[in-house]
Design a protein that fits this description.
The complex is a heterodimer.
Chain A (H helix, E strand, L loop, with lengths): L1 E4 L4 H4 L6 E4 L26 E5 L12 E4 L2 E4 L10 H14 L18 H5 L9 H7 L2 H6 L4 H10 L4 E3 L5 E3 L1 H6 L6 H12 L4 H12 L6 H11 L3 E4 L5 E4 L2
Antiparallel strand pairs in A: 1-2, 3-4, 4-5, 6-7, 8-9
Chain B lengths: L14 E3 L26 E4 H7 L11
Parallel strand pairs in B: 1-2
Classes of the chains: A alpha+beta, B little secondary structure.
Chain lengths: 252, 65
Amino acid sequence: METVPTPSHYGDWEPSTPRTISVWKVHGKLKVKNIGLVADGYGFEDTPDSEWISGGFNTKGPRAAALAREACFFHWGFAADPEEMTPEARLVFLNVLAYMKQFDGHRPLQKKVTRHRKWAPLYARYLRTKTSVQYAERLLDLKILERHEYDADRVRAYLTQNLDFVWRGPDRRYTVDEDAKAMGWPNNSVELLAECLRRWTAGKDVERARRLLRRYTGRKFEDLASWRRWFEENRERLYFSDTAGFRFFVTP
Amino acid sequence: MSTLSKKTAKGFDVVIVDGPSPFLHGAFEVPPLPELDESYDRPTVLVGPVGGRAILPLKIKLDWL
């Protein structure tokens, strides 16, 4: 491993990125022009069958995935043939082959239908130029843009501060779920569902509780008893995925 | 590579999807890609741009940013 200056554009993605990063070399200059490939690095942790392993030097950002796994698929984003890999990279590649054998028969749990909530603050950058404002308006809640006077820094700060409650609303724009905020739990926490059931049981915030339960589980039970039964049966196996649609799923 | 499927991958511990540089002949060009469907579940390492493109039709997290 060696320590090198972080690519300057990484700070645009994540301001807290350190000035230096630790890297190891996968390959040098290639004999034939080629390009590596990175996957969107946000959201690998939100299903139990995927893992982000490593970023790298790329034209995107610090979390863009150069090495990652989802179910039986391993993404090796580097372009070099084994002959052009460093000895260390060859060892890692061999380790990947050995590692992957255990995932025989593992199909991906979910489709990716949307980007992770961490993209929402990044989209605020589209407010910086007149020609790109339309993209911000397409992707972000217009009320948020208006409330913050279309100021990129203010919108970004607001969405970052409220990241626990960001979801993709009915109009497909990223927004802050005020219902979840009122309940006091992040929308991706099982405790939000538990709180909804607590309040409903106490006769408080019943409509909000019902709305949240349906919104984030995809279930449409009418009565409290059915909700409680479903929750108790599945609580230990619930996981929340932004990329699969901003809702809870039950691990098979 | 275009013939890769769950059936043709049977019997192999791990499959590697790779190909020559898309710029080998100048302009960007990828070889015919396998048509992996949702039943595919063999351990598979997707290398570089060719491997990465092979997986795109499945619309999972391993995408091209």
